[in-house]
Amino acid sequence: MSDKVDKNKNYAGRLSYSYRRNLRERLIESVLFLSAALSVVIMLSIVVMLVKESFVFFQYVSLWDFLTDTQWTPLFDDAHYGILPLVAGTVVSSAVALLVALPLGTIIAIYLSEFAPFSVREIAKPFLELLGGIPTVVYGYFALLFVTPLLQMLFPTLPGFSLLSAGLVMGIMIIPYVSSMTEDAMRAVPMHLREGSYAMGATRFQTAIRVVMPAAFSGIAAAYILGISRAVGETMVVAIAAGMQPNLTWNPMEPAATITAYIVQVSLGDLPHGSIGYQTIFAAGLTLLLMTLVFNIIGHVLRKRYREIY
Amino acid sequence: MYCANVTVKFIDNSIMNKTDELNKLRRIIGLHKRWDFLFMITGIIALMIAILTFIALFAQMLIDGMPRLSWDFFTSFPSRRPESAGILSAWVGTTLVMLVTAATAVPLGVGAGVYLEEYAPKNIFTEILEINVTNLAGVPSIIYGLLALGLFVYQLGLGQSILSAGLALALLILPVVIVATREAIRSIPVAIREGAYALGATKWQTVYDHLLPYSSAGILTGIIIGLARAIGETAPIITIGALTFIAFLPPSPITEGFPYISFEWLTAPFTVMPIQMFNWVSRPEEAFQLNAAAAGLVLVVMTLTMNGLAIYLRYRMRKNIKW
Question: What is the pLDDT of residues A252-282, one digit of tens each?
């Protein structure tokens, strides 16, 4: 067959074919590159959008007032713009959540990675994953209508909305994230480290605490940081179960609004675009983003610094 | 000989206080074993707390919501009277928003994943891209809502529409799809790529004919998990200002006359399942909270089914593929 084809023509055809082919390859590569670069565009537009609207806000309210005023009442006639009450609400609810999620998540991870028989692990892991997939609004419902009444039996003075019940449910909600990442980190520790420890006569508990956990420290730190930023950014549970009144308090038994709950509260109303109330949610959002950013940077540093390479 | 001598001496020595030493050792071993046992119990209890919470959550919703679940609940609009309110506009809205989300997030996420895994050169820009994807995954969902509010709703003038909501959720789940795609492609051995190249395939031919089909189950798992997350996501949709009381359906995507497909629904106002549930939860009347339980039950069943499907797919994949 090929003998009959004119050689020159054949070459020309192949050249133009490969030219077209190259062009198509280039085209596809640039389309793929653009979709990857979009993630940077998203990040930049988040920052630009928040900073732009907050900039307008800070021309109206001084940064000093924003950071030191102890009241947050932007929608009242007597408007105060102090972010402290919202930050306090966020910190308290996150602290309650982390007091539940970090210990329980770590214990579950150690148990699943070092103690549990294969069959238990095979059932428990997907189960925890399902637990992490439940919508947050459902957890909010659960906090308001199940956990709060339960807690009111224990503490009769507990109001209908409280940071405590929101934080507790949030903690349960975060457990799967913490436990699955911690467990992954612990399982990545090579077997011979454990075998060495067992050979010295250590028990499983001693091995887990003194050998495996230090070796997996960077992964565990990453899991904790993820848990913290989840807790800080969680919205629906606190919006439903913690009430939406800004309240400068460090007492988890009181109702209070978090940064996220405030944003929800404003969005539920009908605020005109460009009003000061509209800009407050961007200023609040910027504060939230900075808080999670700080934790992410800490996590990054910890990971880099304590990474163990085998 | 010398060794044996020493041993004999040692034994001789230890016979003197044998019981003493042995008891001491036994005590230490017993103590450590007890710690081991105690911790195992603690682990089981911790696991039980998680499981029991899940059961309590499910049972509470089942008891409250089950009586409300009927055919009418799915086919009626929300209403002022709790006993005749339903979730028709909510589930239609959720379906349409998910269509937009999937249509946006899947091509973009898979494309970005393929680029980062197969094409990206090793340079500083690629590193920035990778760090950025990790950071995006850590941004709270409500921040995406603020972005959508500023960018889609006002800057681009899309309004409080299905399109804005779908795009916001697409951005939110993009990192999930990217990471799943990368992991699925990374697990394919280099030999497959080398085989394709050796036969003269171009990079794209290798990706399209080999890598994507072989990693499709893994990518699908990621897409399902992402969409399951998007279905339950409430905060970003509240932030873009979605109305909660919608007693009408968006225009149908399929029209009678030519061209049979209409995109009018993209700009229609809407509500979704989690918003409807949130609306009912935040009302003081108890009857509405029963509705919330029923809506929550539907929502949980939807997300659990999707996540379960993803877990099953991954399980099948792990069992079947042996490179």
Answer: 888 888 899 988 888 887 777 777 888 888 9
Superfamily of domain B70-320: MetI-like (1.10.3720.10)
Q: How far is CA A142 from CA A64, B46, B53, in A?
A: 39, 20, 10
What percent of chain B has pLDDT above 70? 88
Domains of chain B, by residue range, sit at 1-68, 70-320
* Burial environment of residue B21 by CB neighbours within 10 A (0 to 12, 13 to 18, 19 or more): exposed
Mean pLDDT of all residues in B54-79: 84
What number is the ipTM of this complex? 0.87
Number of Cβ within 10 Å of residue A235's Cβ equals 27
The residue behind tokens 């899947």 is B106
Q: How many CB atoms lie within 10 A of CB A248?
A: 17
State whether residue B111 sits within 8 Å of chain A by CB: yes
The confidence score (pLDDT) of residue A266 equals 86
Q: Residue A176: what pLDDT?
A: 92
pTM: 0.86
Rounded to 5°, angle at Cα A21 from B111 and B212: 30
Q: Nearest CA to B168 among B78, B272, B278, B262?
A: B272
pLDDT of residue A160: 82
Q: Which two tokens stand for residue A128?
A: 């925890």
Domain ranges of chain A: 2-59, 84-309
A and B: number of Cβ contacts within 8 A: 255
Residues of A in contact with B132 (CB under 8 A): 39-40, 43
Q: B277 CA to chain A: closest CA distance, Å?
A: 8
Q: Mention every residue, 6+ apart, whose C-beta is less than 8 A from residue A3.
A: none
Contacts of B241 in chain A (CB under 8 A): 267, 270
- Cα dist. B289→A283, B234, B271, B277, B281 in Å? 33, 17, 18, 9, 5
Assigned CATH for A84-309 = 1.10.3720.10
The residue among B209, B208, B206, B213 whose CA lies nearest residue B190 is B206
**Among the ranges given (A241-250, B52-61, B134-143, B202-211), the one the predictor scored with the smallest mean pLDDT:** A241-250
Contact B141 A235 (CB under 8 A): yes
Tell whether A55 is within 8 A of chain B (Cβ).
Answer: no
Interface of A with B in 237-256 (CB under 8 A): 239-240
CB contact under 8 A, B281 and A234: no
Measured CA to CA, the distance from residue A255 to residue A238 in angstroms comes to: 10
Asked whether the predicted pLDDT for residue A210 surpasses 60, the reply is: yes
Asked if pLDDT for residue B165 goes beyond 80, the answer is yes
Q: What is the pLDDT of residues B108-134, one digit of tens each?
A: 999 999 999 999 888 888 888 888 888
